Amino acid sequence: MKTQIFTVKKECMLSDFIKANILGAGFVFIKTVLKNKDVKINGVRVSTDTWVDIGDTVQIFYKDDAIKEWKPYKIIFEDKNIMVVFKNRGIETNSEQNQNTLEKLVGHTAVHRLDVNTEGLLVFAKTQEAAGELKYAFENGLVKKTYLALCFGKLQKSPLTLTGYLLKDKAAGEVVITKEKQPGAVPIKTVVEFVRPTGDFSVMKITLVTGRTHQIRAHLASVGLHIVGDGKYGNVKMNKLYDHDKQCLCATEIKFTFPNTSPLYYLNNKEFTAKPTFL
Questions:
Q1: How far apart, in whole angstroms, are the C-alpha atoms of residue 39 and residue 50?
Q2: pLDDT for 75-121, tens place per residue?
Q3: Domain of 29: which CATH number?
Q4: 153 pLDDT exceeds 90?
């Protein structure tokens, strides 16, 4: 039996904590350890999902073969300055609270983020100089990020440029899209293009003009284009009807336009692309 002991650094549900801190821990694993009372919170065994608070000690016992080997990323490109990987869904990009993040596994600095359940291309800096150049590029519109998504709904006009404001609701762990500016809200811009139908769904190409937390998922949902399998902003009824619990959103292309004075200027000639696992 393996035993792992953790200290909670951010309050959340126990199931979310286990998933974030034990690599490869999925629904079946979490259900099994709870059913068998193989989880202790502050020394007390528990059998149901419950809330854990900052400072709590969580102890988890499980068999060596309880989790199948799972590699959450694949290297697409690497040189002395950067690493580009394909991130699988189910792992955080980076976090101060969680032990298992892609940044920690890769061992380099993530210069942007993908949501836990979004797959696709992610860029890491291998040096401090590269980190500065890349962060500047992402913050100043020198990076073109393109996504593919499987959506419920259709576009009456394509391409469609969506604008608005994004307001974070930290208590709920989500964002709200508004048409009018509100205190704390930031402007967002998303371009959506219909690619093709596939069964009862539509494949959409999304280009981020701004890059905010949950922007694509929330912005598309605000106009009725719910991403298939999205458990937060998606169409719960349709996800259940079609038995989709995996979010169908993938970062498929990244292009750089560094100025010729940048030491990363040579990356402008590179094409970083990936294919979604859901198409």
A1: 11
A2: 999 999 999 999 999 899 998 877 789 999 999 999 999 999 999 99
A3: 3.10.290
A4: no
Q: Could you tell me which residues are beta bridge partners of residue 208?
A: 145, 190
Place of tokens 């006009």: 157
Are residues 161 and 95 part of one domain? Answer: no
DSSP 3-state assignment of 27? helix
CA distance 217 to 184: 20
Tell me: do 135 and 261 sit in the same domain.
yes
**Hey, what's the torsion of the CAs at 208, 209, 210, 215, to 10 degrees?**
-30
Cis peptide before 159 (omega within 30 of 0): yes
Mean pLDDT score, 240-261 = 95
How many structural domains comprise the chain?
A: 3
Helices (H), the chain: 14-21, 27-35, 102-106, 128-139, 215-222, 236-241
Question: Per the domain annotation, does 67 fall within a domain?
Answer: no
Of 231, 227, 234, the residue nearest 206 (C-alpha): 227
Residues 6+ positions from 53 with CB-CB distance below 8 Å: 8, 11
Q: Give the CATH number of the domain where residue 266 resides.
A: 3.30.2350.10
pLDDT of 147 above 90: yes
Same structural domain, 218 and 265? no
| Domain termination site, one of 35, 62, 89 | 62
Q: What percent of the chain has pLDDT over 70?
A: 100
The domain of 9 spans 2-62
Residue 208 lies in a domain: yes
Q: Does 68 fall in a domain?
A: no
278 located within any domain = no
115 is catalytic: yes
pLDDT at 46 exceeding the cut of 90: yes
**Identified catalytic residue from 16, 53, 56, 115:** 115
